[in-house]
Structures are given as structure tokens and as C-alpha cells.
Amino acid sequence: MQKGNTRISMAVIRRLPKYRRYLSELLDKDIHRISSKELSKIIGFTASQIRQDLNNFGGFGQQGYGYNVEELHSAIGKILGLDHSYNTVIVGAGNIGQAIANYTNFEKAGFKPTAMFEINPKLIGLKIRDIEIMDADLLGTYIKEKNINIGIICTSKEKAQDVANVMVESGIQGIWNFAPTDLQVPEHVVLETVHLSESLYTLSYLLKHKREEED
Amino acid sequence: MQKGNTRISMAVIRRLPKYRRYLSELLDKDIHRISSKELSKIIGFTASQIRQDLNNFGGFGQQGYGYNVEELHSAIGKILGLDHSYNTVIVGAGNIGQAIANYTNFEKAGFKPTAMFEINPKLIGLKIRDIEIMDADLLGTYIKEKNINIGIICTSKEKAQDVANVMVESGIQGIWNFAPTDLQVPEHVVLETVHLSESLYTLSYLLKHKREEED
DNA sequence: TAGATTGTTAATCGATTAACAATC
DNA sequence: TAGATTGTTAATCGATTAACAATC
């Protein structure tokens, strides 16, 4: 799909899910054809940027016509790797861990939590939906045996690096980290961290500097 | 604090919380002085970028010496608006809403959830920690009466815009949105959206394209 | 065919990095 | 003072936008 051996910039990659989401909405509205100009109006990127972005991955459009919504939606899904499913584990059955486990949208998108892991004995053995909470000591073995692709870290920042190490040693391919810390992982392991407090502090900054910005 | 009337770029603003976090860690380790070069090693930005970033807000360093960690930490806290507290409400007492309500770190940083709002009658009247779950119909009145600064939206994407509208009409200053949709708010209201699925899909992309990237 | 719109190259803009004089 | 390191200007790099020939 990707053209030649050009490196795609992270800026482009992070826009792809947004394209896909808006294309989904168009499909819901039974709109099957869209030009970069029209898409620009609803998504807020320039038409030029949209065409540049998409052309990193191939020529999905047709001159004089625009883009076929279904086709583009499915192509972006494939590019993002949403055309097949992944096995995941959630480590930490606290607030965020439970929220992720309960959030069925991720499962619908192909990210299936197969088990949760905890150190708190009161939680071990319980289930969240059909997902069992297991003893954290079993994490490594489980990842190896069940062919887990993605590890989701929902522990405190103090425990997160240890958990990541176990995951890496057990052959995990990617880590989705919610602990408020920057983890160290080898180059072959993909890491994506959600820094909730950084997001909140950014909001706080903008709140404080709003008036100045309006000057 | 901010120099003249230069506009600070979002790229810089989004790095500020990370500076603050690493400076906190240094304080925990009783390190009271740091040069941009040393900070560069632990935080992963270039020393040049660190000096550029900080100089947007003033000259916090001293030639030949470096930066005083306490001073810089507190200065960045002030810049981010973390030197005073905010009243918040959480709308939606589902998975994410409950997780946010239970996550005491935000409260410690000055973002105090004063109430939650729900449409599900089974949840109305319950408490999460000391935070009462109230009828969503009372949201607007509550925001006005209690001087709420920040509204946290944890509803479905279908309800999110309506909730945002009520918040805006009631004089909210900022919205922290967890619903997977892009909200429309007037210019004077600050909006920060956490797109969890976009983060997950980015991870998925990187997973899929890992091997190619290693070529 | 004429009109529309892409794909792609070139121009611009902005952010990052390098360099170095100022100065502690 | 000499050494270290900032603050800041200049150079580079990368991303976005504009322009337009290609073509459906």
C-alpha cells in the first residue's frame, strides 16, 4: 500500500484515524463520494493536506470525481491494521484498567482483551465482562502461551516499567501505556503512551492564557 | 511571565507538562541544579530545544550554572496554571467517568470534581468517593451556581455535543472531552479532546509497519 | 467535449537544531 | 580568571499550503 520506501511522518499517521472516523460518518449518512474540498470542510484540514496525506499511501482518488468513501475508508482501515484482530492483556485492574476492559468499542475494532492481571488478591479471580482477572505473576507465561500482541499498562507509574519489562521479555509486540511515565522499551517493541495529565495540563494552560490570546 | 506578545506554539505548550514531570523527579532525587545538556539526556529533547522552549517564557537559567530545579518546576507550574485550583464536573458516570472520578491525582493537581451527572436513574444518587452523581438535567444550573471552570465529558459520542452545548450556555471555561467525536464550541471556550481510539489505532499502524520501518 | 478534481511539484511557513557571543 | 552554560540569532530541516498539469 505504502509507496516505495518513503518514510511516513508521525504527523500524517496520527491524522489517519481521524480520516477514517469522518469517512465512517459519511457512510452512515449514505454519502458515497467525496472530494478533498468537501472533506476539508467537515474535517478541518486543508484540501491540499488531505490529498498530500492520502497520496503517501497510493492514489485513492479519481480526477474530476473525488474519492469513493467506502473504498477510502476500507483502505485506511487496512493501512492502520484494523483489518485483522489483536489479542491484548490489561495489566492493572484499577480505575483505568476496568474502564478499558468495559469499553467494548476497542473489542469491536479488533482489540480483544483476553485477560487482566493484578497484584491485589481481592481482585484476582473476579471477572469484568467475560475477562478474568489473573495473578500478575502469570503475566509472562500467559503472553507467551496465548500469543498476545498488545499489552495495556494501567498500573501506577512505579510498577509500569517492571510490567513493561516482563511484557518485552515475553515477546509482546506493542505496549499501550496509561501509567504517567515514559517507559523504556527496545526498538522492536512499539510503545504508545496516553498522558492524561499532560492533556489536562494543556487544557489548564489554554484556560489561563485565553484572554491574552484574544488580545 | 510570557515574553512580549509572542504567540507560543502548541508544540511548545504540549512539552511543558513533560518538563514539569521530569523536574519533579529530579526534586525527588534531591537534584537542585540542572543544565540543559543534562536535562536533554534524561528527557530526550535536544539541549537547544529545551533552552528555546524555556526562553519563550523568560530567562530561568544562569550562564555557567544551568537551571535551578525548584525554581523552574514552580515557574512551569505557574505557566500551566497549576498554582491554583479549578472546579470540575464529570458528565457521564460510565467507565471513563468513574475512572476519572476515582483518579485522585487530578484532584491533587488542583482539578477537583465537585459532582457527576448522569441520565441513568439507577446511578443518580450514588456517590463515587465523595462525589455525588446527580441528574443530568441539573447540569446547567449547577455549573452556574457552583462556579464550575471545567466540564469533563465522558458520555457517548451521540450525547457529547448536547452536553457541551449546555456547558457552554452555562458559562463553562474549558471542556475536557473523552467522547470519540470532535465537538463544536465557541472560540472563548477551550476544548481539549482525548481520542483514545486514535491513540490505539496509531499503535496498530506502528505494529503493522514495524518490519517495513526496520528495513 | 468541458468541467471538476486529483496527483504532484514548487513555494512557503514554522519548528528544530546549530552556533556563538554574552555572562555568570 | 577560566570554564561552563545560558540566551539568542542564524541555518537547517520538515511539514503545510499553493499551484497547476494530468486526466477522468
From TrEMBL, chains A, B:
Q: Which SMART domains match?
A: CoA_binding
Primary residence: cytoplasm
Query: Known Pfam families for this protein?
Result: CoA_binding (PF02629), Put_DNA-bind_N (PF06971)
Q: Where in the cell is it found?
A: Cytoplasm
Q: Which GO terms describe its cellular component?
A: cytoplasm
Give residues annotated as binding NAD(+).
Answer: G92, A93, G94, N95, I96, G97
Entry annotated with the keyword Repressor:
yes
Q: What domain of life does the native source organism fall in?
A: Bacteria
The residues forming a coiled coil are none
Query: Domain named CoA-binding: which ranges?
Result: 82-182
Task: Report TM segments.
Answer: none
Q: A Gene Ontology MF term for this entry?
A: DNA binding
Q: What Gene Ontology biological process does one annotation of this record name? A: response to redox state
**Is this entry keyworded NAD?**
yes
Q: Which keywords does UniProt give here? A: Cytoplasm, DNA-binding, NAD, Repressor, Transcription, Transcription regulation
Q: Which residues bind DNA?
A: 18-57
State the family it belongs to. Answer: Belongs to the transcriptional regulatory Rex family.
Describe its assembly.
Answer: Homodimer.
Query: What is the documented function of this protein?
Result: Modulates transcription in response to changes in cellular NADH/NAD(+) redox state.
Q: What is this protein called?
A: Redox-sensing transcriptional repressor Rex
State the species of origin. Anaeromicrobium sediminis
The taxonomic lineage of its organism, from the top, reads:
Bacteria, Bacillati, Bacillota, Clostridia, Peptostreptococcales
